[in-house]
């Protein structure tokens, strides 16, 4: 594996170059001013001073831009390396497990109960591979086909119930660990795009809260025909310094080689990209009492949604609370 490049040397080199150019600018200015004051042809020296300072400032700006682009490119390279590590691990682990079970079934006589257990484990490994492939396909489709604002209307209860059941099954937790409180709220957007958004968010909430996840999904109507959907968990949370970075492509906190939680670093990037193209927004905050994580997704409301709530707000009344699913 190619060694990962460090950001220290480009930053140090850039700082030294910037310092050298600033020192050169200051020296040029001082020498030119002294020559202009002591010479009869002062206009010529002042003109030379202006040209020289302009060129040096242009070089300084170029060095700063070059440093910025270099740091950005190395950071992207590091994230891509993390992505390759994570995908390699996600592929190798279930394949090695499947190989072991198949070799055992081929070379040894095992009891019917053990066969049943082996088949269950192999099915879980195949499901893990299928999930990874679906995730990569979602990324490819999203990157090549920009999701656009849609007039399609999707009821959140009908959208989220199958997602919650599938996520609970995938992680082997009771369905009751994911609580849906969305009532009859609807949003606008293609169902396939919305499935990618909420499947990633709910899956992350469960995955990072194991072994006893407590995930709550709620929805409320906002003014200006918007709907806010929040996904809250009681996991370790995201440090405040990283809450903007986690939406970047290939970004995962920590080292892939020391990580126990599976993933590719594309999920939240897809969430942000799709939500933006649906003319919405997504933010991450600390959970209640500073425990866990809370993702808030704002999307255009379905036709007619928000009328009752805005009227109730104008009258000073509390909007009706949706039923719990």
* Annotated CATH topology of the largest domain: Heat Shock Protein 90
Q: Which CATH architecture of the largest domain would you pick?
A: 2-Layer Sandwich
CATH class of the largest domain: Alpha Beta
Give a quick account of the main beta sheet: strands, pairing sense, barrel closure.
Answer: 5 strands, mixed
Overall spatial form: elongated
Distance between the terminal alpha carbons, to the nearest Å?
Answer: 49 Å
The total domain count is 3
CATH superfamily of the largest domain: Histidine kinase-like ATPase, C-terminal domain
Strand order, largest beta sheet: 2-4-5-7-6
Order of helices and strands: HHHEHEEHEEHEEH
Residue windows where pLDDT falls under 50 for at least 5 positions: 255-260, 306-325
User: Mean of residue pLDDT?
Assistant: 76
The secondary structure category is alpha+beta
Strand content: 5-15%
Fraction of residues in H or I helices: 55-70%
The number of distinct β-strands equals 7
Number of helices: 7
Radius of gyration: 28 Å
